[in-house]
Specification:
about 210 residues, mainly beta
Length: about 210
């Protein structure tokens, strides 16, 4: 291994990198740098020197939420690119409701208002939480494309929120849920070795 870069610390959100990096060239501080662009499910775009792994554009560690479940440890900070704009917003509020009809939008607004929510990297708990961007991104498969002639990065992005909740394992009697799978739109993950089962589903219009 020549170098490594961690785009996220202690992954609790299924925010694994969705695709490999794309090789690009960057004009920076009067020099042309062989670099790479790495898009993430969090909606971040990291620009790194492909030879050293060091950020070409600044990355800073920012304090993130620490209100997780008992027994879980959380990284106090997460890396955020400073110069590249976010590919998607990092939070969703009731005023951001959507739907075909006023009733539909009202149901969406009420659902968002009922969920525990915060900015990105809000840890999952026993109360249903809004994860935005969801585990599908941000960006997902496909990575980014680079137009060398114009110096443009082109990326496909998703604004899909998810509802995530932890359930005490002792309260679950359904063996199918214990072993994972899907039911009623919910995806269940057994999370063996922990006292919890995780369930999640996309926040979609009714």
């Amino acid at each position: 291994m020549v170098w490594a870069f961690q785009a996220e610390h202690h992954n609790l959100w299924d925010y694994d990198l969705p695709s490999g990096p794309s090789l690009i060239e960057v004009q920076h501080d009067g020099k042309r740098i062989a670099a790479l662009a790495q898009a993430t499910k969090m909606g971040h775009l990291f620009i790194l020197d492909r030879d050293t792994g060091q950020p070409v554009l600044p990355v800073e560690e920012r304090t993130v939420a620490q209100d997780g479940v008992a027994g879980e440890w959380l990284s106090a900070t997460q890396p955020f690119p400073v110069k590249t704009p976010r590919l998607v917003p990092d939070r969703l509020e009731p005023r951001d409701d959507w739907g075909v009809t006023p009733w539909d939008r009202g149901q969406c607004r009420d659902t968002i208002a009922s969920l525990r929510r915060g900015s990105i990297f809000t840890p999952p708990t026993l109360k249903a939480s809004l994860q935005y961007p969801g585990n599908a991104g941000g960006t997902n498969w496909g990575g980014v494309s680079f137009d060398r002639a114009r110096g443009l990065i082109v990326v496909s992005q998703t604004n899909l929120a998810f509802i995530v909740q932890l359930i005490p394992r002792a309260e679950v009697t359904d063996r199918r849920r214990h072993s994972g799978g899907e039911e009623g739109g919910w995806e269940y993950a057994p999370m063996k070795g922990t006292p919890y089962i995780m369930r999640r589903r996309a926040l979609l219009s009714t």
